Amino acid sequence: MSSVIDKAALVLRLTGEHEPCTLQELTVLSGIKKPALYLLLKQLVQNGLLAKEEKTRRYSLGTGVFDLAARRNAELAAVHFSRHIAEELGSEFGEAVTIARLSGGCYHRIAEVESRYSVKVGAVDGRENRLYRSATGRVLLAFAPEAEFRKILARAGMPTPSEWPRMRSPEQLERELRRIREENFAERRTSDGEAVFLASAGFDRNGSAIAVGVNFPLFRYEREESGRIRARLARAAEQLTALLSGENRR
Q: Out of 1.20.1080.10, 3.40.50.300, 2.60.40.10, 3.30.450.40, which CATH number does the structure's domain 71-245 have?
């Protein structure tokens, strides 16, 4: 057991199984020498992964452990329910469906369904340019917290004409993102006129946006009633919000 991470994982597991524990009890259980264990326990307490009761000098799991577990459970729920929504939309429209969110300021796809047609529109490749070139990316930018949006803009720069035509200034970009936010809807058509990308936002229980998008070849999109597609996309986003908030668990 050479690494500090291995030792920390062992101590956390043993504490969870036997809490509240003294330093001596954890020394016996872990086999780690007392001076090294004392320093490790001190670091785990400082980082909120363990809590120490000063009167009894016993250790229990800290709130940081539960925060990590809650965050992980929220991520798993987002993936699970996003797949459910994506499959419903894919079954209804037969088109490619993408559900994505921001993670560390980058576009992160969490669910995807391919089109059942031979002529189809896939997802946009790349990490940075998906935020500009896809409807889901534009929705995520529109609902990103101000500080996160500023960091993304500083890192990625303004969209190029191929990524977002006629977007010439940061002020113009902000106005367009404000419009997307107010309507909770983004539409992007490719420059060759062959495909259209549509997206709306759902939200997790922390209020972070999750973009729900459908991609159509333009010739099939024009056969459909655009208002019906937009309304269905909005309902799917609302359903995802309800599932993630626990209001409509199935």
A: 3.30.450.40
